[in-house]
Queue: 4 jobs
Job 1
Amino acid sequence: MRLRALALVVVFCLMVSSGAGQDKAGSGDKDKIQDTWGVTSGKAKGKDLPADFIKDVKFVFAGDKFTMIKMGKKMEWTFTLDPTKKPKEIDVKFEDGTGKGIYELDGDTLKIAHGEMGDPRPTDFVSKEGSQITVIVLIREKARKK
């Protein structure tokens, strides 16, 4: 009887610790982010994003791939998330380096802030005039169509 109770405790501890490791690696948010997203608003260098960009651009997260689709053209990169950081971090690997950003995922809304390649990671979701920060707010396509 004591052996069975001990075995149950060990199994429970293993399940909890493996779940914590998955969250640390970003799989919780990584699973939640998988979808097609449209742009609802954004600012680049303190100025509103153009209306045609907001209307025409889609972002797709599939596995560890991040694809931007604009006017039928696709550009694909890989991404990683770190939801253990405050604010949560997103890195996108481009051909010539890694772009560092932050993100906030709230149900069907995803907010991302990033600078130019090689810039330090932003610390908040503000794009001031004269800065190199872009802040973009996305909505799940399924939610937009409701």
Job 2
Amino acid sequence: MAKGQGLPLSFIVIAAISALVLILIVAFTIGGLGGFFKQINIAGGSDELSTVQTACQNACNKAQFLTTESQFNNSDYCSKTYAIDLNKDGKINATTETKIHCWYTPGTVKGTVIYASGPGVDCTVQIGANTYTGASTPGCPK
């Protein structure tokens, strides 16, 4: 066999990697791996509540610098809502696991729904003579 015949090893390795990437892209696009990635997302969702708690604490820190009741009511702490898989069943229940506010704590009642859990981030903001917190009055609009 003479030198120069055949394919270089680096070309074969690059071709194999390219083929593997192409197969993964096609499988993901068609949906064959969609269930696999969804399971990863659900397993990784165990920290979802703590992630929301961190976001709520950051929102509370920003609210400390507000100067009016209206600003507090429209702040992320009061107005931003979250959808959290509180019971860890891999699904977001539209009645009990959506539109959850930072100040929701276990036992929060909204209409006929009693929330078993929530971020529960207490935030006290002094605006003028009034002290505002999430669930108390004056506080976030219900």
Job 3
Amino acid sequence: MPRTFACTATATLLAVSFVTAAIDARGNDSALIIRVYDTTDTPSNVRSAAIRTAAEIVADAGIAVDWRDCTSSSTEPGCQDTRPGRDLIVRIMPEVTPSASFRGSALQLRTFPGGSLQLGVAMINPVTLSGEMATIFQEQVRAVARRSGVDDTELLGRAVAHEVGHLLLRAREHSASGIMRGAWSLEELSTNRPEDWQFAPTDRERIQRSAEVSSKQ
């Protein structure tokens, strides 16, 4: 039986941070801002490459995004000025924390029946269905990359895109195809079909509708 990455959903809003600059939309006032805060020892060039991967996946969905790496510049105006309800945060942490293991919409690798390796989590408010933060666990991403034989930087970017997808879709649920699948198998990671790492057409439409609503608020 193939080992798979499984996304499990629960409900809660958690405040956190993460991501890096790849698509620059600073000239567009309506652009969504995603701030990245990395608390690991990841080199800046690796972080930037992962953000480029995530940014390309999100851009393919037709959303204008200003990605800002605030890891070493958190005191800069671009990392402090916020627009409540329109800005998102992604945090890269070294490992899974106990509080994150049971809360939010979690991306996991099933290692054996009853066991799992959690890669990330996106927090969605159960009442408003809004979310502002996603967290990725670097050591778990590296472990999965070693098992599957894929580049850990690319896998990091895909995990970011998946969790940001939950925030953009304002949903804990998963899709039958595309980047928002509820399970990623090691075979899918190694086969690397482009359609597996893009938002499915129906998800793109939902993300665009949600972005239009947010921009009017």
Job 4
Amino acid sequence: MPRLPRVTARKTLSALLKAGFYIHHQTGSHANLRHNTQEYLHVVIPRHNKELAPKTLKSILVQTEITIEQFIELL
């Protein structure tokens, strides 16, 4: 299993947009994303200018049902 990459929130957001998510709405500095076809998938991405903490990124990937390999390919 590959290591989790250190990425910013902007790169994470663009990767999830490629995976079929869209920005449903934004509250403050957090974007709420939904999936186009799998409507039960919902995730909140903090939109800060620094790298995401590894545990935060892992939580985002679990909520979106995307593996680390798939995420690396989307980057």
